[in-house]
């Protein structure tokens, strides 16, 4: 299986190497400057300043090489500075850097949209627009759904994360840190229960059916289906804790939307582009969304996002009703074309499945062995463990375990409404030996933390 070391690209040694404590002296110095220049509202998970990155490692300014289980939050799935991305962007930057697609268009924007229309689930006719961020994609998906249906209400779910702009922060479920004191929020947003198997009151077996019934009942009684423009859901909840909805829940909700003329929007900003062992996570249960939002892994780290949807919905908006200055920037479009090619050429969908096959058995073994591991879940290269107070389902904060991992040179992220989930998003090109080493560091961190609670 190929690794970071794709044809022709400069290689970083694929190894963990610690030469100072983490963070090292140069990172600490830069962090002091950062604190004087950048407000704490922009958080920092691991105050290590990066100098280079590629494959499964990040190399910091002190010369430490860290194992990457984050991919910059599911962005660098094809690897950092991936050779095809570098090459195409390098060529484009010398040709032109911007014209604004709405002023004078260029081919790469169209090519990205054509590929998105092919790659996303369903063989119906589709259209795409390109924007700059996941939040902007979600905003536009809602605008389009409202315009096409002439309705206003939007239904979202517990544990949802859809972004930080006014509307998307409203759609997001969690108060601290995303919403606290940032109100008032946008109107016409209604929240339904998510089929969260581990925490469903009557147990995982009845979760899908009961959560779907409660959602439909809420829509009928509180809103009226004929007033609902869109239901938006992450096929696997990302920031909310890598919650895989109980099987059957998503198809039932999609079916209800179809029966009632409601636009079903899949927010695949985190789950998209091979991450879960499918090109899109919706494919796992054969769901064909009316609109799909994508971002994160779409362009190997360049800022790009997209809304792809049924032609009749997308075409319903009046001319010039959609757009933005930078949306579909030519450098980002070239990067996206390189990403699509890399996923195909390096068989990264299969590679994501393989990563799941390596990680999930070892994570399940942790659950058998350590009392603080309450649940193991995920698909492909999007996996997580949920920590609990031993013998209960009470959330046990995951930050301490993450800190232990960081100190050993493993970049691991937390997540979850209760902050008690450790989530793993390695680049899909990470070599197996780094996956295994990262898991061993994680096990040691859990073992140590387990003794303290
Ligand atoms: C990250 C994320 C967003 C927001 O994307 P930004 O690019 O940070 O605006 C929206 N939805 C989901 C599911 C995400 O994971």
Describe the protein.
By secondary structure, this protein is of the alpha/beta class. The protein folds into two domains: 3-81 and 347-452, Alpha-Beta Complex (Aspartate Aminotransferase, domain 1); 85-345, 3-Layer(aba) Sandwich (Aspartate Aminotransferase, domain 2). The protein has 13 helices and 15 strands. The strands form three sheets. It has a seven-stranded mixed beta sheet, with helices on both faces. The chain has a four-stranded mixed beta sheet with strand order 1-2-3-13. Pyridoxal-5'-phosphate is lined by residues 133-135, 138, 161-163, 234, 238, 267, 269-270, 295. One of its GO terms (molecular function) is 4-aminobutyrate:2-oxoglutarate transaminase activity. It is an enzyme of class 2 (transferase). Its cofactor is pyridoxal 5'-phosphate. Pathway: Amino-acid degradation; 4-aminobutanoate degradation. Keywords: Aminotransferase, Pyridoxal phosphate, Transferase.
Strand order of the largest sheet: 4-10-9-8-7-5-6
Ligand roster: pyridoxal-5'-phosphate
The low-confidence runs, each spanning 5 or more residues with pLDDT under 50, are 1-9
Question: If you consult CATH, what is the topology of the largest domain?
Answer: Aspartate Aminotransferase, domain 2
Beta-strand proportion: 15-25%
CATH class of the largest domain: Alpha Beta
Largest sheet: 7 strands, mixed
- CATH superfamily membership of the largest domain: Type I PLP-dependent aspartate aminotransferase-like (Major domain)
Helix content: 25-40%
For the terminal residues, how far apart are their CA atoms? Answer: 40 Å
The total count of helices amounts to: 13
The CATH architecture category of the largest domain equals 3-Layer(aba) Sandwich
How would you spell out the order of helices and strands? HEEEHHHEHEHEHEHEEEHHHEEHEEEH
Mean pLDDT: 97
Q: What is the number of beta strands? A: 15
Which structural class matches the secondary elements?
alpha/beta
Structural domain tally = 2
Question: Shape from CA axes?
Answer: globular
Radius of gyration: 22 Å
